[in-house]
Amino acid sequence: MAPAVTTLAADAPALSAANTGFMLICSALVMLMTPALAFFYGGMVRVKSTLNMLMMSFISLGIVTVLWVLYGFGLAFGTDIGSVIGWSPDYLGLSGIGVTELWDGYTIPVYVFAVFQLMFAVLTPALISGALADRVKFTAWALFVALWATVVYFPVAHWVWGAGGWLFEMGVIDFAGGTAVHINAGAAALGVILVIGKRVGFKKDPMRPHSLPLVMLGAGLLWFGWFGFNAGSWLGNDDGVGAVMFVNTQVATAAAMLAWLAYEKLRHGAFTTLGAASGAVAGLVAITPAGGSCSPLGAIAIGAVAGLVCAMAVGLKYKLGYDDSLDVIGVHLVGGVIGSLLVGFFATGGVQSDAKGLFYGGGLEQLGKQAVGVFAVLAYSLIVSAVLALVIDRTMGMRVSEDDEVSGIDQVEHAETAYDFSGAGGGTAPRTTATTTAAPAPAVTQNKKVDA
After folding, report:
1. Closest C-alpha among 389, 10, 439, 428 to residue 197
2. What is the pLDDT of residues 195-210, one digit of tens each?
3. What are the tens digits of pLDDT across the range 57-97?
4. How many CB atoms lie within 10 A of CB 268?
5. Mean pLDDT score of the chain, rounded to an integer?
């Protein structure tokens, strides 16, 4: 993602209505990704947890939005302090920003940049929720979102994208969020589940998705919104880099879906809809950091590797014994690591920057930088997220009771159920009049069944 760039007054750009409109549309697309994620996750859980899963994403829209306006934007993109955090009094409450004040070096207003970045901040903690399905108190989750955004997401966003941030200054490439979003969320998910433990019945009871159509709808909306997420991260549309990212997003996603399905067919004998949706998301995750530095052919390779490796990774939870309910670690953490590291192989030096990967004559330098970024964010998020979860668990309790989990978290936490089959339209038989002649019952042979 393009950071702030200081320019001379004589070279300062003028506000571009085209770029401003483009970025507002991209911001709306990224906002759509949070409800899309809610549908994606909501369809993957059992019926009794559907509403809770939806709400775990939607509450992030409320909490993170308010925190971003109050202080989050300043922490992430304010004046650098020690290469680890930002701050600017003008960004406190977004109160000191002029209506037409431009983001340094770009042709869009600061307000537009702030709202675009807000949508990233909203989505990232929502990604974590998929690993915690069925078993977390809603109040505890809401508190975790507020604390995690403050002490993990805002600082990491500054490291990666903020002018002066230590990973940005090192030259780590993360076009749209492989480290700051996906590795960050995936590592946080691992840290939390190591604290709260497994669901009741893990490895014993079937925990199948209750609505694969909802999963496919959510995946399709994520794919759609991801074009704003990725192409918009160049903060304009003047030099073609955003267009390359748009193409690479489509290409990598398609390749990952095909690779996941091929693995699934060979390994399990079927092409599943859940596999298609998961493969597409894995490709979207992997191309997010890399799509601005590679060619479309490189995007195919990155997507194919991500689809294959992530398909293999989702089964690790059964071998290693951690309960990642909806495969956040297997898709977002693993996919983010793959995409970020493969920049060090596939960067052409001819798109967003002149940095070249190993396959284009750049040696191991960029790969080394990418590895530092990957493991720094992974370690920080994992440790701090586990500590936050432990503190919340020891104070207010993070899990619902075993009885509440078994009976259904929707009814306990939200006093609602996702589907009501007791009302009108439930298929009741029509009333017959006295003059109606009943049709004779069909004959049923001993060896045939009549479907209800």
Report:
1. 389
2. 999 999 999 998 999 9
3. 999 999 999 999 999 999 999 999 999 999 999 999 999 99
4. 11
5. 92
Question: Beta strands 85-87 and 79-81: pairing type?
Answer: antiparallel
Concatenated DSSP letters of 352-383: S-S-B-GGGT-TTHHHHHHHHHHHHHHHHHHH
Asked if residue 260 lies in contact with residue 311, where contact means CB atoms within 8 angstroms, the answer is yes
Q: Among all chains, which residue has been given the structure tokens 């290693």?
A: 320
Strand, coil or helix: 201: coil
CB hemisphere CA count around 63 (13 angstroms): 22
3-class SS of residue 282: helix
Amino acid at 40: F
Q: How far is CA 247 from the centre of its chain?
A: 20
Which uninterrupted H or E stretch holds 86?
Answer: strand 85-87
Q: How far apart are CA 118 and CA 155, in angstroms?
A: 14
Q: How far apart are CA 171 and CA 180, in angstroms?
A: 14
**Best CA proximity match to 139, nearest among 430, 435, 395:** 395
3-state secondary structure of 224: helix
Handedness of CA 192, 195, 201, 203 (dihedral sign): positive
Q: The pTM is what?
A: 0.91
